[in-house]
Amino acid sequence: MGYEICDMNTSEGRAKVEAYEAAKAEKVKSGQQLYAKIKRTSKYYGQGEPGALFPVYVEAIDYAEGYAVQGGPGGQYRLKDVNLFIVGDGREMRIA
Question: Quick one: average pLDDT of 28-42?
Fold first, then answer.
């Protein structure tokens, strides 16, 4: 995975970011929907409503920060900062 710098002052840059965000949103919707809650022990706890589930997808990465969970109020989280869930029959089921 690499980085791309987009100039948001150009229509081309804005279009690239819009396409990236749309692709990210589609990944969240496809397959078994995963959800996350930010752990109380995380420095990110308090972003959004505490204890609230938010839709995410997990992305394989290889850079030092380890942000693998995409979605939610902060946009991305390390696996150590969240608990993952699926929701079925109206129940939250934590993925260990």
Answer: 87
